[in-house]
Write a structure and sequence with these properties.
Elements (H helix, E strand, L loop, with lengths): L8 H11 L9 E11 L9 H12 L6 E4 L5 E4 L6 H20 L3 E4 L16 H10 L5 H8 L2 E7 L10 H18 L5 E2 L2 E2 L5 H7 L3 H4 L8 H11 L20 H7 L7 H8 L6 E4 L1 E8 L8 H12 L1 H12 L2 H4 L8 H9 L4 H17 L7 H13 L7 H17 L7
Antiparallel strand pairs: 1-3, 1-4, 1-5, 2-3, 5-9, 6-7, 8-9
Length: 426
């Protein structure tokens, strides 16, 4: 499997410093959108693996510009190409969805935007060596790993790391902004309040699940003046999830960090390619991949529900005035967050549980969405995109609500109807 010679610890640290934050003017934007795949006529009925595999084969034959992949539980993911504008990104993904949705409907399958599967327990349909090793690894921390792998979906927004120099668009400022604004975005777009048909007590159950996983690979690294060094240390000190082989199990020795692997060379000397693969098994809320990948937003309902979080995030990161206003707004949240890393600190926990019912998060969201709305015309956003953001702001943010509240209202209304004698016969 490895094709390059083994490398030293110093070489790997230098490699990480070179690839994790590629600085320069923020010019590109990207999005990765995930959907829960379900039977179109009965979403509560799990889809058999054969149907999913047949649908995957059909979709891979389509002329898509986005990268098409499937997650372990059969979730469908489209990852856009880096776009030079918000409009280009939206148009490209919209065109791909216009091909994917009819192809899925033709096979009796639907695509739902929920942060966590509201219908049935997690069930893995992909049996690749990577996912076998991942499941075995996360099972050491309980059942949350299987839920993460097989029952969650998100909208992940990718923005450039920013300038090397300080300032509103500097990479250090954007790194800190992502970890404070991330709680606001998680709260505003919370869309996973149930599991197996029952409320979990959280607006975003997906965030609850992420907070229960292996902290060495799912928490944020320490925030400070040197993001590159902190990230390199985080990567090398994270346990190895899997060691690729040409055949057989990919399981890694328990407790083996990548740094230990480099120093001992056991079970075989690692390579730079092993490090690059190791990076794909780390899941902090903000992941530097040359650009910044924001991973905290639940999948959204509706054909174009993903557009609003993409547009808002792009505006708050790439418009200098909006970025400055957002940073000044969320900087005050650092006191609430405290010293614990996201998503286990008090700020992120309050976002997961209460969404925008939390007064501090609500006030921050109102200010940030206002800044985003003002910035979108400067970014060249279309009238349709600006209208969608305005509608979401009025429907949810201004009222201290999030999409999860709609689901809870509908669930409680249905339960209330069930308690009314003779209701079904009226």
């Amino acid at each position: 499997m490895p094709v390059r010679p083994a490398v030293t610890e110093a070489e790997l640290e230098a490699h990480l410093h070179g690839i994790c934050f590629k600085t320069g003017p923020p010019r590109r934007i990207g999005v990765e959108i995930e959907f829960l795949v379900h039977d179109a006529r009965n979403p509560r009925c799990p889809v058999e693996p054969d149907r999913l595999h047949a649908a995957a084969d059909a979709l891979r034959a389509l002329p898509l510009r986005s990268l098409l992949t499937f997650e372990p539980g059969g979730q469908l993911e489209l990852s856009s190409q880096p776009a030079t504008s918000l409009t280009e990104c939206i148009e490209s993904v919209t065109a791909d969805l216009a091909l994917v949705r009819p192809a899925m409907r033709a096979r009796g399958l639907g695509m739902a935007g929920h942060g966590h599967n509201p219908w049935h327990p997690p069930r893995r349909v992909l049996t690749d060596p990577r996912y076998n090793a991942m499941e075995a690894y996360f099972d050491r921390w309980g059942a949350a790993g299987r839920s993460m792998m097989c029952a969650t979906a998100s909208v992940q927004v990718c923005v450039d790391a920013g300038y090397e120099e300080p300032g509103p668009l500097g990479h250090g400022r954007r790194w800190l902004l992502a970890h404070l604004l991330g709680a606001v975005l998680a709260a505003a777009f919370a869309n996973s309040p149930t599991s197996e048909g029952c409320p979990t007590g959280y607006r975003t159950t997906r965030q609850l699940i992420w907070s229960q996983l292996d902290p060495a690979r799912t928490l944020a690294p320490p925030l400070g003046p040197d993001p590159r060094t902190a990230w390199a240390r985080y990567v090398l000190d994270a346990p190895v999830m899997c060691i690729r082989t040409d055949g057989g199990s990919w399981d890694a020795p328990e407790g083996l960090t990548f740094r230990d692997w480099v120093r001992t060379g056991v079970p075989r000397p690692p390579t730079q390619e092993d490090l690059d693969y190791h990076l794909t098994t780390l899941f902090p809320p903000v992941r530097p991949r040359g650009h910044l990948e924001l991973r905290m937003i639940d999948a959204q309902s509706g054909d174009a529900g993903w557009v609003v979080p993409l547009a808002v995030t792009a505006a708050l990161f790439d418009d200098p005035e909006a970025a400055e206003r957002a940073y000044r707004t969320v900087k005050a949240l650092a006191e609430t967050a405290g010293q614990r890393p996201a998503p286990r600190n008090p700020l992120w926990r309050r976002a997961a549980r209460g969404g925008l019912t939390d007064p501090e998060l609500h006030a921050a969201a109102v200010a940030c969405f206002a800044a985003a709305e003002e910035a979108l015309p400067r970014l060249g956003a279309s009238p349709e995109v600006r209208a969608a953001v305005a509608e979401f702001t009025e429907r949810y943010v201004a009222r201290g609500r999030c999409p999860a509240d709609d689901h809870l209202d509908a669930l409680y209304a249905a339960e209330s109807d069930d308690l009314i004698p003779g209701k079904d016969s009226q």
